[in-house]
Structures are given as structure tokens and as C-alpha cells.
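assembly run, all chains below
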Amino acid sequence: MRLTDEEQAMLAGEMGEARRWAIDHQVQVGRMFDAVDLVPVSQAHMMGDPEAVGVAGAEFLEGLADQGARVAIPMITDPRGVDLRRYEVMGQTEEMAGVERRIIAALTRMGVMMTDTCINYQTVMPPVRGEHVAYGDTGVVIYSNSICGARSNFEGGPSALAAGLTGRTPRYGLHLDENRRATRRFRVSEQPKGLTDWGILGAVVGQAAGSYWEVPLIEGLEVCPTSDQAKHLGAAMASFGSTPLFHLLGITPEAQRLADAGAEALPIEPVTPEAMQAMRSRFGAPGDKVDVVVFAAPQLSIVEMQRVAELCEGKKVSVPLIVCTAPQVYPDAQRMGFVDTIEQAGGRILVGTCFYNGYAREVGVANGWKRLLSNSAKIVNILGGYGYTPALASMEACVAAAVAGEIVQ
Amino acid sequence: MIRLKCHAGVGGRVEGEALVANDNFSARYDLDRIKGVFSRPDHRLAGQSYVGRILVLNTAKGGVASAWMLHEMKTRGLAPAAILFNRANTILAQGAALAQLPMCDRFEDGDVTTLIRTGDRLIVDPREGVVTILDRADPVG
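ok done. output:
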């Protein structure tokens, strides 16, 4: 890899041990992906919940902080795993909270801003077209690449941290034009309606694409998704397919025309109503009992918080209803009365966490939760591997099920 | 002895026994990391222990959490010995670099999940980009 004088100095340890670790990590990863050099990035966003990081990772972060590590660019964080205000009611232990506190303390010492959100493109600072960034969280990356036209690979926690410390990332994958062109061309015949439908479309296309190195282009859309709908589309596509970028013909910035995305010669693959229905019916049926209803993955925007509050107005849930939102959204939701309305109906709001990355397996066992209902195709996909029997329904049907204790529509 | 050439990877040289499936991999979605087994019911290796094995799989999928998890699993002594893919994704490569867990991908002779069989004895050399099959397991079924 070609390194500048400054980068060579970092690698030689002249700018401290933490930066030496960071750039050494980046050179190893860059070599595996044939990066020719490093590209400056303007922001880093790090995923680092205690379940994933573990005690070993917390010790690693403390070690870097002890070495005087300090971020070189604005660096923010993905959701935490433990809402320290209310983890006991979730069945999370003091030990889990302890790991969380250690991670927060170490990152804060390094100058990381604890934004604790997976919707930073809605709540903190959306990236600009062509901006090189180092984001963690697949949902953040796919949205930023696809909707904003920014450039990021999936940066796992350690790599996002390395980028924060060096202000660079290896130039491979989606930082390069040639990897951003469409490789598959899907045509829808059924227009998505509502968040869950967009999530299902993402799931179907993601499953068909099935790789980090595929770029699906979707055509045939007569409707433009809202930011929340695009959020569910991307989150599901990345979850089912590990895909970091999609194009919507005539909608997203790098595919105003087929030629922009190099998609003219690709064969058209229909997304049939049957494929959409098959994805829907994989999960849950009316009459099925429900143990817990979850709105998360991604965290809810203020618009979604308003809608949940409207649906909860004057109702009383009979099974736990959990709502995860961003710390930037929560104060607004509180001020506007949405928090009160949801809590009066018996709902619980978690701030700065996301249900699936907060020891979901242990939480399920502690609370006896198995049959989980959500409007997020992403969470339904993930929690199948966590001992849950998840089911998917619209936001309206989810609240109705929380009230009835079973799927009602 | 069969010598398979692949792209240079991360981590050091390791010897071990292969566990192979034409399926994908995510540490967060597919594993019970406490027990050290594949736990996702529809994974082709569901129920099997990955501890100390050289996993041979198609590609990596799912979330970014796996980047931390390999390091965490290795610290507890419940990690695979190495992972070979047809095509790695960024997250697993990053995770392997943090954990110093050997990982290689892009095999010149084709689909690594058919080139290598479960039970084969392997040496993985990521620096050179070479995987050597020392002993072949009997073909299954």
C-alpha cells in the first residue's frame, strides 16, 4: 500500500501507540482488499455494544485510552446494548451494565461522542453525496451510500475506531466508483405500502442479491420512499443480503438513469407479488399468541414515535410493548407528549439502545419471551438465531396485537 | 498433499481440521457463542461445534458485530482456528485482523466449499495465500 509520510510516521509509532495500532489494522485490512492507499474520511461511526465487544473488547478499548488515544475526526456511536436508566426491568444484569459503563468511559476518554444511534443520518448529520466516511451499522452504511450518495464500507467497531484515530480508511470497496455500479436489476410489480412493505422488499432483494459485492438496482417504483421507508428498505436489505448499497431508478442520486449505474445491459429479474407474499408469510399468522412486541432496528424517528403514540392513545397493552428510539429523538418525543401517551398505554421506551443488540438471548430467557412481533423485517431476521420465534406485522397490527396478546390481523 | 492458492489474507499460519458447508456466516446471527455451536436453525451447520475447527464457507453476511465477536470469542478460547471463504466481506476481515485469527478468501481453483471436505486436515498460511490439504477425509454420502 502507498502511504504518505504522515501515515508512515503513524505506522512507525511516532504518533503514539494507539495510532500505530490503528493504521497497522487498516493496512492489514487494506491489503486483503487490494487497497492502493488510504482515503481521508470526515466522520466515523462505531458499533460497540457490550454483548459484541465483551469484556475482552472493553479491556482493549481501555488499553487504547490509557495509551492516550484521541480521535482525529468527529466520531459518533451506534446504539448501546444497555439503557442504564432501566436495565433491571429488561432482565439485564449488573454485569452487563458494568461492561457497558466501561466501554462508555473508555470511548469518552478518547473524545468519541456518545450519540448512541443507528439513525444518525436522520438525527445527527447526514453525509453529503461523494463524502467519504467510515460508518458502522449496516443500516447506516446502506442508507448513507444509497440515499445520500456518500461512500462507506461496512466498518466494524475496531475499523471504525481505527478510522476515527487516523482520520482515514483503506480505499477499497465502496470508496471506488467501479464497485458502486449495479450488478443486479430488479423490477417490482407491486408498489410497497408502509414501512413493513418496504422492509419486505428490502428482504426479498437482499436475499436474492446475497453478498457484500452485489449492488441491486430496483426499478418499477411509482412511489418515492420517505426517509423512514428507505430506512426500513435498507436495513432489511443489508440484514438479509449483507449488501451495502442499492439504487432506486430515478430516485437515488447515483441512478437517475439506468446508464448512471451501468445497468442497461443487466437482465431484469422480476420481484413478484408471490415472492413478497412468501417473505411475509414466513413470519406469523392471525391467532398466534405473542409474548412481546418490539419497535426497533432501526431506532424510531420522531415521525414514527408520533405514529406509535397515536396508535397507543387510550389503549392498554396486555403484553410488553418495547419502543427503541434515539437519544436525539427522545427529548422531542417527551416534549410533544408522545412518551407519556405510549407509557400510559403500558409501553416501555428504551433510549439509545436497540433491542437486538442488548443481550437479546438472555433478555428473552429472563422474561420468558419467545414469540416476538415487530414491524421490522431486520429484527425478525436476526432474532430467529437468538432463540425467538419472531413474526412480522405492520405497526398498526403490532400495537393491536400488544393489546390483544395475539396477532389479530 | 494438495496445495490450494488463494488471495493473501490476515493472521498467522495454523493447522487444523476443516468444517465445511456451502452456506454463509455471521457470528451474530448464526452462532451460540456461549456454547460454541452454530445455533441458527436453518444454517447447514446447525448444532455443530466450530471451536478449534477451520471453517470453510461461502461468504460472510449480516451485521457489523462480528468484527468484535471474533476477538471476544478468541479471548474465551471458543473461536474457530481459522475461516476460509470463497469471498470474505469487510466485517469479517476487520474482525480477523483485530483477533489475529487467520482468514483467507478467493481460491484460484474454484469453490472452496467443494475443494475442501469436512474432516480434511489443513494448513492455512494467510501471508503466502496458500492452504495445504495434508490428509483427506473420506467423501461423505
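The first strand of chain B starts at residue 2 and ends at 10.

The CA atoms of residues 122 and 133 of chain B lie 5 Å apart.

not gonna interpret more than that til we talk
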